[in-house]
Amino acid sequence: MLKKTLTALAIAAVALSVHAQEVLKVAATAVPHAEILNFVKPQLKAQGIDLQVREFSDYIQPNAAVEDKQLDANFFQHQPYLDSYNKDRKSSLVTVPDGKIHIEPFGAYSKKIKNIADLKSGALVAIPNDPSNGGRALLLLQKQGLIELKDPKNITATALDIVKNPKKLKFRELEAALLPRALDDVDLALINTNYAIEAKLNPTKDALFIEGADSPYVNIIAARADHAKDPRITKLVQALRTPEVKKFILEKYKGAVVPVF
């Protein structure tokens, strides 16, 4: 009888533990964000958080899903992109406290040349079509001496802001996710690291040139302003900013993703 009672109590305890799990729904792009989130799932589960990761392949839906309260937070973007999104969409998403996680150095890739010195006059260059990443691409091209911008520090510069273009480069603006597929059709493409990794490009080996680790484009955890201090999100941030996660990032991505904590 005692054995049956103890078994019943054990089953009840397990049921209570499962019931006590609080769900946290987070939007992410597949690489590296969803991979990093999935790495901390067990740690969060032990703290009573059922982390559910929903993967997206674009940069618009993850913010819209959080804003519409379908999801609690997202992990895919840097602060300049969020600022641009908020301005364009009249949104008010915020970076959560201590929500800066890593940098993905932005790089330039080509299937037609092996050295940037070989870029021909009139070459076709593909860049992201969103304001923050398009500006980021132009700033990187400027740093290489390929162009000069009217305002050399304008993070939302467009091709119209180019005042010097000695190689007479031509620009094609594409959705960021499509840039790896454009490599066969252009001479050079400036590609976000998450999409480069998904396309089996190794940023530290395949990029003709790449941002340094001092890049200001830190990837963040974002949420609605009224939700930014939610205890579940606070636990997520704490789980992400640990020595174990730092080791995971450094070993898995080998310099293509750089932790900032």
Percent of residues in helices: 25-40%
Identify the overall geometry: globular
* Main beta sheet: 6 strands, mixed
Secondary-structure content class: alpha/beta
How would you state the average pLDDT, rounded? 93
Number of helices: 9
Summary of the model, kept short:
By secondary structure, this protein is α/β, with parallel strands linked by helices. It is built from 9 helices and 13 strands. The strands form 3 sheets. It has a 6-stranded mixed sheet, with helices on both faces. A 5-stranded mixed sheet has the order 9-6-10-5-11. A two-stranded antiparallel sheet has the order 7-8.
How would you describe this structure to a colleague?
- The chain is α/β, with parallel strands linked by helices and 261 residues long.
- It folds into 2 domains: 2-104 and 216-259, 3-Layer(aba) Sandwich (D-Maltodextrin-Binding Protein, domain 2), CATH 3.40.190; 107-210, D-Maltodextrin-Binding Protein, domain 2.
- The protein is built from 9 helices and 13 strands.
- It has a 6-stranded mixed sheet with strand order 2-1-3-12-4-13, sandwiched between helices. Strands 9-6-10-5-11 form a 5-stranded mixed sheet.
- Helix 2 crosses helix 8 (231-240) and helix 2 packs antiparallel against helix 9 (243-253).
- The longest helix has 19 residues, at 2-20.
- The chain is globular.
